């Protein structure tokens, strides 16, 4: 991958980005890859030398790395920080780097640091639950020690004191510990096996020339087109509808003073956050239809 600096940031940012120490070791898949779209994983591997990433796009990742480094200095007796754990499932070596393990007589509490926004910290995020449960599986499978609980330590970069006092469910402090549901060992293992099957099939499909496994709507962060009825010249919708027919009927009922606004759906990840969209036939076909 080629690193660019389109905005002329100081060289120190370029150097920090180049000196990333991340490595998944001998693993076939990291936890991040296991949870990712098989198509994206395959396209990244094929086109790695052709990809470009700008330093500016790595800034928040650098903040996260810096925070991890700072928190390592807070290590106390009975804790393990930044440990990469490997285990093999169905012949695939899976690895994950666990930010914090707190050891007690009952077992190990697993925590993951996230530098995130307040809005994200207020939502239930399936990917956080999946990631932490895979970590729990790694710990129990590799160490034979029971995992007692899981949690996200959310470091909220855009926290606002005023909103914490006025907005419902807003984080009370710039750091929030979010409990994560711990699945049974069997549920964790089955989830991992299902994900491995998806990646294994996708890998085989590309190897024998059948093409790439398409991304799902959720993997593309796809939103549906919505038909909004609002007051003429207004911004806020009075009602939202899934089809034009429903919207036209509502508009006829309301009469004058209202208008229809078509809020076109999109594939947000494909458009703005996918590093391999230029190599993706699925996205190219989507753009052609648009």
Global morphology: globular
Low-confidence stretches: none
Structural class: alpha/beta
Can you give the mean pLDDT? 93
Helix-strand pattern: EHEHHEHEEEHHEHEHEEHEHH
What count of structural domains? Answer: 2
Mind describing the biggest β-sheet? 6 strands, mixed
Portion in strands:
25-35%
Q: What is the highest CATH level, the class of the largest domain?
A: Alpha Beta
Number of E strands? 11
Distance between the termini: 30 Å
What share of the residues lie within helices?
A: 25-40%
Q: What is the helix tally?
A: 11
What does this structure look like?
This protein is of the alpha/beta class and 290 residues long. The protein has two domains: 2-207, Lambda Exonuclease, Chain A (Alpha-Beta Complex); 226-289, no CATH class. The protein has eleven helices and eleven strands. It has helices at residues 11-18, 31-35, 38-47, 59-72, 118-121, 126-143, 161-166, 185-207, 244-254, 268-273, 281-289, and strands at residues 2-4, 29-30, 52-54, 79-89, 92-104, 107-116, 147-156, 175-180, 226-231, 237-241, 258-263. The strands form three sheets. Strands 2, 4, 5, 6, 7 and 8 form a six-stranded mixed β-sheet that branches. A three-stranded antiparallel β-sheet has the order 10-9-11, covered by helices on one side. A two-stranded parallel sheet has the order 1-3. Strand 4 (79-89) and strand 5 (92-104) form a beta hairpin. Helix 6 crosses helix 8 (185-207). The longest helix is centred in the last third of the chain and has 23 residues, at 185-207. The mean pLDDT is 93.
